[in-house]
Design brief:
Layout: E1 2-7, H1 11-16, H2 19-26, E2 30-34, E3 51-55, E4 65-69, E5 75-78, E6 91-95, E7 100-105, H3 116-134, E8 139-144, H4 157-160, H5 168-179, E9 182-184, H6 185-189, E10 199-200, E11 212-213, E12 216-221, E13 228-233, E14 245-249, H7 252-264
Amino acid sequence: MKLVSWNVNGIRACVKKGFLDYFNEVNADIFCIQESKLQEGQIELNLPQYEQYWNYAERKGYSGTAVFTKIKPLSVSYGFQEDEREPEGRIITLEFDHFYLVNIYTPNSKRDLSRLDERLEWEDNLRHYLLKLDGIKPVILCGDLNVAHKEIDLKNDRSNRGNSGFTDVERGKMTLFLESGFVDSFRYLYPEKDESYTWWSYMSKVRERNIGWRIDYFILSKRMESCIIDADIHSSILGSDHCPVYLELDFYEQEDKYEKRKAEL
């Protein structure tokens, strides 16, 4: 199974910059986007093989997430609570036979950290939500998490220490989340690979010089780590200040374990 996640920073603008060329070339089974920045009816994407699920922010031109999937889900929900339609369109959960897919766009704590308390509350809510799902079946979390977890995950770690996305408390929340039973798929395969970034400032020559941050992730329930075939960062793909991240899984072993456990129950 091939999965892609991409913060497109405005899907309408990204479509004009080659989004569909990449979408068709990568041919993912599940493709997730963040920061769609539109309302219902403002775009029509012709994706004949895919079911489309959108979570729009109430505020126009802001936030928003979407999932395009070849595999029809068993159920779809929006927000952390059943029947909740959270106002910023930051989360979509799709339930499939053997796993949940959760696509998120984590709130930025802002340059002056004025939204940090709200961000930390989000982190706690997200962790509790994912642990609840994980108690039912494994979870695949993807999206823009707006945090560089370790020093290796951004170019200038010393000068950015304490800045939004690299505060000790934000990084600590990520550590706590991973230690509660989840694995960062990219670091699982490439624990020491540096200069692997997913976001670059629009400042002049920053992307060309690869002065970036790795803040976009695929994170899985730890018991799924044996399913990971590949995890990649498609940094050559333009169209946004973020680039797509890619995950390939082989579920045969996972399905065998699931059926065995089901039979035992």
